[in-house]
Amino acid sequence: MKTGIFFSRCGDVFEGRLRLDLLAASYENFPVVRIVDDFFHPDDFSVLLDDVVKNKLEAVVLAGDSHFSYAQTRNGEYLFKCLEELGINQNKIEIVNLKNMVALPHPRDHEMLLQQKAKLLTDAAVEKLKYSHHVTTVEISPRKAVAVIGLTSAALVVAQHLLEEGYKVFFINEKKEIELPDEEVKSMRPTMVFVQRHPRLTMFHDATVTDFHGYPGDFSLTVTAAGQESDLLVGAVVLSLQNNSAMIKMFQAMFHIDIDKDGSLVALDDVTARSQTQDRGVYVINPQKVAGEELGQAFMAADAVASMVIKLLNQKEIHHAVKVSEVKAEFCSGCGACVKTCMFRAVSLVGTPLISHIEPRRCRGCGNCVTACPTDARDLISSPNNALFGSIDIFAQFQSGAKILLIACEGCGYRCLNNGAESGLAWPIGVIPLKVVCGGQIDTRLIIHAFVKGFDGVGLVICGEGCCHNIIGNVDLERRANLLREILGARGIDEGSMKVIATCSRTGQECIDSVNEFYGQFAGLEQADSTVVLR
Prior knowledge:
single chain; Rossmann fold; FAD/NAD(P)-binding domain; disordered C terminus
């Protein structure tokens, strides 16, 4: 497989910390190894794509910035789209977060260790490409219908925009009638009349959503209202949750929305992605909080959401990569453990003999079923088990003092580390991060393997109670971890060498404080102060 490795300087972040020229030189046997200032500088962008074409690359490693910088920066995924158009499968693009996992959280005077750590993280990305299967892509003709859930003034504004653009709107109101604050009614009367009288509007009062699945542009919702169920087919979903904590909690996992430890709605990114969720095609009306300007801010947020929905559904076709759990039929025993584990009803047993079957429209790719399978018949396309074990083998080569492996879910755990580094928080150089999709994907065999390979400790950084995007991935992991502690003791390993760190915080402060405290028991040194700004 012809793989190109590209390093970004990310401005001056690596100055005095990392020698990218030395790092690049260690991959001289690859078809292309290049250092650029910024992947999104027009000249560097063109050079990267030209290298892909000229060298007929089949896979790409992008080392420098964070995974989140692509997902949460406006048009940040445009680079991936261009690479796919040149024939590189989405699952053959690997990101190495040198900025937030190597450069920012560690002191400058650790240059040799920083260099070594950067090399190992890059090696792990190359290793993962060996095991990553191609993902398939489905082509969707977007449905010209939208479900708007939660009847607020802002939701009415969204509905007005969509109806004017020719869309069908399903309004799902948890209450028995339209109820708006008295101070908003006067401003909203014309809009209310327009929306209520429109022939393309269907209103469900005293209603709730009991099921949701599908792809952006082609979602299915089951709505229960007045004792009757209705199945709705829509291209997008708009949530207007305001400060309704009950609705936020109800829909948090169903619609992949982010919440904090208090159960309040949190933006995917406060600046660039206030209205997006982790699922493309699902939007949240999330206005800025400005005293005295609440209604105006709500209208601005509604206008923005309507614009994003229209932009998405006005496309002729939407291409969606299907990253699901896969089944190795020859190993499947038909035991049904995967069926019991899946909270999204994505798994069933079919055929004779019974074989596990995945419904891709329902599968979230969380990995819970992979861990539950007793015959190793399942794996994640986006995060293969062999790649995780291979990464541990590579990370074990790190030559520092005490070292711990930090297995972090991308929902809360890895995000906390990433955000903490951005804000200047520090953790010891001997802490090595391994990103997984969900806490539910963390197999106890990974933990034991890390100890066998010489790690002093293993930290499991997962979503806190009520924050898991996959409903019970964190709960399942904690249950497995409790059982594993007894096994570790029998193997002569102090059960305190493994720690579960559960967090819903987005700042990273609490999480990184816990990481530093955990590391301190191995280092025998004064606990690092995570409030120190290193930049």
